[in-house]
Amino acid sequence: MAQRSAGNRVGMNHRPHDAGESMSATRSAGRRRLAVALALTASFMVVEVVAGLLANSLALLADAVHMITDTAAIGMALVAIWLAGRPASIERTFGFYRTEVLAALLNALALWLITALIFVEAFRRLTSEAEAQGGIMVAAGVVGLAVNAVAAWVLHKSAGESINVEGAFLHVIGDLLGSLAVVAAGVLTMLFGWKLVDPLFGIVIGLLILFTSGRLLWKVLHVLMEGTPHNLDLLRLCQRLEQLEGVTGVHDIHAWSITTGYDALSAHVTADAAAMMNPDLVLSRLRDVASQEFGIAHVTIQLEDSDEGCAEDHHIEHPQLVGPHHTRQ
Hints:
By secondary structure, this protein is an alpha+beta fold. Helix content is 63%, strand content 12%.
């Protein structure tokens, strides 16, 4: 823990050791699950492309193209995890953690591009005489359904812990829904010979891909815009810090995510004269609340005896406690 003093201000910057260990364990588990999912999707990718060409089915080809991008997306997620594990340097003081966020962004944008291509081909086929082979569609769709179900099950747990893995997981979910649509389109084609079923289900697959990628894109943009982590109640954190003995207020507070599971906090905290006699103790208590109770990995706090002369303009309004040790600023 490094401290610096300038007159009546004391600073503290801290990153708990267990936060780094937890991130390393999460990244390792995500890497293993991504490797299994990559093997599954890559194995079925060639089969589905061939089946789509043989069946002359847009729904099946759309799902096949999505499977190809699944393989690329999972591979990119693996590379991002490897880069994120590299140590920090003077040029990149937070290391390469943001590569996982950028990989998720590229995955979301790739899904949108795929959807656009599917829509274009679907509308072209609505006016053509092409007829899909329902039997091949059903067979390939059932196998794809099984492969994607296993891959989704493998990635599910890590998807909740990493926005990078979530991007790959949503690719697989989109493909799972696509396989369902392929099976349904194949059955209807076999039973009724409806030519429009195939392009219409291709459009349905595209809409499903848009739906599954929209939430991911919003989460990625929230991180890149350094929004407050969704799992952090910032107002409750301010009030909890102000409950500590000797603390009179919290201002100029900022909270953001470097990557999933690695949140950062900076804040100015004012304290009374008695607390300023032992600033190390107050800073230690403030750090423990932020890191242990709220799970913040990187904590930077500046302790002050007054907020007069503070040059920061980013004030977060919040209800402040009033009592023997707490006065409104």
